[in-house]
Specification:
alpha+beta, eight-stranded parallel beta sheet, disordered N terminus
Length: 599
């Protein structure tokens, strides 16, 4: 039986907001994309890409690379042309505008020059992200493999480089929604709430020189109640028996607030630093301490904010989400981070700042980053500006049956409680895919651990590839016990995690009391198409409005309802969404960011 028969006289198109407009498909661009195209800028996104661990001795490798799309993984003899990295070949800003198919290979090549190779130094090649699986060569020799289209990775290429000209080649394959790999909202045939697939290098590439024994990572944990911060220095490189000295300095504005020095035997260094006059971080006052770490001959700079996330009962016994031990209602907005000319790659630093500032100016205090991992600079801007972040894990699994996982559970309450060990129901039959999700989940937490603004890990959304949520919550808690966990956003609740998290689109907003804080992790989605600022003539969303006045009234009614529910126990609410994306026209901004629908 189809859903039309099940819901009787209600039309599917009207229920899910799919309508037609008089706008034909066009090519949208943001003002930042227009500037790149007008000036024919070759090297883009030139800022240091990882503010959470900064080195000074680096070289950005963004710019024009050679590319070829081939039928096998043999190195190309003839190249198809040039591509502007880090924009995917499917995008306008790449200069290619061609969809990579699952049975094809995408090759990149570029030269770089080294004047000299410093003694006792290593050269690390860094990728912000490459979608989906890739093999990297330097001067014809394979140097590394990586799986996972959203996580950053590092390759030590010291032994392969030489003085003078060197060559990097990258071979990529991306199966998108034809396999179980993590893909987020990408589809080869975009439609509705799933968007144009992209592939290849889509975040900044750079290299940096480090000491022979170097700092691989920092792990910074604020201990708010004890007025301390724990800083763990994790080394890598040559093993040596010689003692290594370290120094950790914490700065409050321009003065040293705390410091520690010591010697270790080529092992991690862990220091607990007291901050007796600590300054708290919050969206109202986003103060950040600066950090400088020296380990042997290596030096990195970072930062952190002193904040604490907890669940505490209020005076009426209602569980609340507390920031620094005070109830803090999180007025959130869903943000998927797509751009018409560059898909998942932010067009520029200013483009990232624009979206965050817009959300903050509208009264939002939290962004739910939906099914995407942003470049590390995006999180830095949230840390700096004071914007809480709920971070989704990247969904994967087999082909989704949206009738079972989305449409029917939206309206039929008993189906929201289906057990998630029935792997076929949620498209998680493949055991390798389940293990891959776990691996990438842990990698995501480790990569983003030092981001002050992230308060919540969202493991699964609306059952897409969901499995063993309770066990996976325990896994995440073992990696990070300092943040909240939304184990199942929407439905298929397994009584796991810290939140009671539901999506409400077709019914009145309400609070359902439980022993956990209640959050409406998605609501709204009101469509308001703006002529000349639409991707196509198809419209997806909920409750179409055709003029600004009606849109404003509908939006304000929802916001007033959310405000009234805070007293009843609502702890957070996430409005859908920040921008229009392709056929989905339910943003508060148009896809090209040129029209503010709430102005």
């Amino acid at each position: 039986m189809g859903i039309k028969e099940m819901i009787g006289a209600i039309q599917l198109d009207k229920l899910f907001g799919i309508e037609k407009s008089d706008c034909g498909q066009n090519r949208l661009t943001t003002v930042w994309g227009e500037q790149i195209l007008a000036e024919q800028t070759e090297v883009v996104l030139t800022e240091y890409p990882r503010p959470q661990m900064v080195r000074k001795n680096y070289t950005i490798l963004n710019g024009m690379w050679k590319y070829a799309i081939t039928r096998d993984d043999s190195m190309p003899v003839i190249w198809d042309g040039q591509i502007r990295v880090p924009f995917s070949p499917e995008t306008k800003l790449s200069g290619v505008e061609r969809q990579l198919q699952p049975d094809e290979y995408l090759w990149y090549e570029r030269n770089f020059y080294i004047d000299r190779i410093p003694k006792n130094k290593r050269l690390l090649l860094q990728f912000g992200a490459c979608d989906e699986r890739c093999k990297v060569y330097v001067n014809g020799a394979p140097v590394g493999l990586h799986t996972g289209g959203y996580q950053a990775f590092t390759i030590d290429i010291t032994k392969q480089v030489e003085v003078g000209r060197n060559k990097i080649q990258v071979c990529v394959q991306d199966q998108t929604d034809t396999s179980y790999h993590g893909r987020g909202k990408q589809m080869l045939k975009n439609s509705g709430m799933f968007y144009t697939a992209q592939s290849g290098i889509w975040q900044t590439v750079w290299y940096e020189w480090v000491a022979d024994t170097y700092i691989k990572a920092l792990r910074i944990t604020p201990d708010y109640d004890s007025n301390k911060v724990r800083i763990e220095v994790l080394p890598a490189g040559t093993q040596t028996t010689a003692p290594i000295s370290y120094k950790v300095l914490v700065y409050e504005e321009y003065s040293i607030a705390a410091e520690s020095r010591g010697i270790v035997d080529n092992e991690p260094a862990t220091v607990d630093l007291e901050l007796p006059n600590k300054r708290s971080w919050s969206p109202d006052s986003p103060f950040l301490y600066e950090v400088r770490v020296v380990y042997g001959e290596d030096l990195v700079e970072s930062y952190f904010g002193m904040r604490h996330f907890s669940v505490e009962n209020d005076s009426e016994g209602i569980p609340r989400l507390c920031l620094n031990h005070k109830p803090f209602f999180q007025n959130g907005i869903l943000d998927q981070g797509y751009y018409p000319e560059s898909l998942l790659t932010p067009v520029s630093d200013k483009a990232m700042l624009n979206d965050i500032w817009t959300a903050k100016s509208k009264g939002f205090t939290m962004i739910r980053k939906h099914c995407k991992i942003e470049p590390m600079r995006w999180y830095y801007h949230c840390d700096k500006l004071g914007m809480l972040v709920w971070q989704d894990m990247i969904n994967g699994g087999g082909s989704y049956n949206l009738l079972k996982t989305c449409y029917i559970p939206t309206a039929v309450a008993p189906l929201k409680r289906i057990k998630d060990n029935h792997y076929s129901y949620t498209s998680r039959e493949n055991g390798k895919g389940r293990q891959e999700w776990k691996k990438e989940c842990v990698e995501t937490i480790q990569q983003l651990y030092n981001c002050t603004s992230i308060c919540t890990w969202v493991l699964f959304n609306e059952g897409w590839g969901q499995f063993d949520a309770a066990k996976n919550t325990e896994m995440v808690r073992a990696v990070d016990s300092t943040r909240w966990i939304d184990a199942h956003s929407g439905w298929f609740d397994q009584d796991a995690g810290d939140l009671k998290s539901e999506h409400i689109y077709f019914f009145d907003l309400e609070v359902k009391r439980s022993d956990k804080p209640y959050v409406i992790s998605e609501y709204g989605g009101i469509t308001f198409p703006i002529k000349d600022h639409m991707y196509s003539d198809k419209i997806f969303g909920y409750g179409n409005r055709t003029n600004k006045e009606d849109f404003h009234k509908a939006y304000q009614r929802l916001k007033q309802k959310v405000n009234s529910l805070e007293k009843e126990g609502l702890c957070a609410a996430v409005y859908t969404q920040m921008t229009d994306i392709e056929e989905e026209v339910n943003g508060i901004l148009t896809y090209d960011r040129k029209v503010d629908k709430l102005s």
